[in-house]
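User: I'm putting together a teaching handout on how multi-component assemblies are represented. Below are the sequence lines for each component of a complex, exactly as they appear in our records. Could you produce the 3D structure of the whole assembly as structure tokens, so the students can see both representations side by side? Please keep the chain order the same as the input.
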Amino acid sequence: IAGITQAPTSQILAAGRRMTLRCTQDMRHNAMYWYRQDLGLGLRLIHYSNTAGTTGKGEVPDGYSVSRANTDDFPLTLASAVPSQTSVYFCASSDSPSGAYNEQFFGPGTRLTVL
Amino acid sequence: GQNIDQPTEMTATEGAIVQINCTYQTSGFNGLFWYQQHAGEAPTFLSYNVLDGLEEKGRFSSFLSRSKGYSYLLLKELQMKDSASYLCAVVDNDYKLSFGAGTTVTVRA
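Assistant: Of course. Below is the structure of the complete assembly, with chains in the same order as your input.
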């Protein structure tokens, strides 16, 4: 089934630990995105990648890093997790990074709790 | 920065009509999306507006006024399965999406 997968589905993590959230899409989309969703704040962009080999910072990039070695994969790494990074993380992709009609397709999300 | 406002919650009766308003002040405008998100699930695409006017798609319609920085999503003939959060998102100058906090719609029998 075409789409976006994320792993793990959920994770409880001790503060200070390193964690990588995985995201894979099979739609050959050029652009990929990482958002966090917190109650009352909506979806906020963490990092994005317009095409393989390039990445950019979103609205809330501190404490997170990404890489885009190929078209399909876009992992998000928390180098040293803190409790304020407790959130639901969504990966998304779109065919074109620019142009007005830029429908994004979302993965199922990863629920992360940092204690 | 981006400022996108929508009501936090709305409640309506099955079979009724509900209108969810969204006002925005953003750095540029390249279109507006509405997404639906059921609890515990991913957002899914509902509609896209880039020109002023009404776009109709079955029971759902979306309206845009660029001069007023205003959009609404109209849900007609409400069904229980329409209970969800509805997210307004604006495409800014960098073609990135800025999301409102979402409106939770509860449909009652």
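A couple of points students might notice: The CA atoms of residues 4 and 24 of chain B lie 4 Å apart. Chain B touches chain A at residues 4, 8, 30-31, 33, 41-45, 48, 50, 87, 89, 91, 95-102 (CB under 8 Å).
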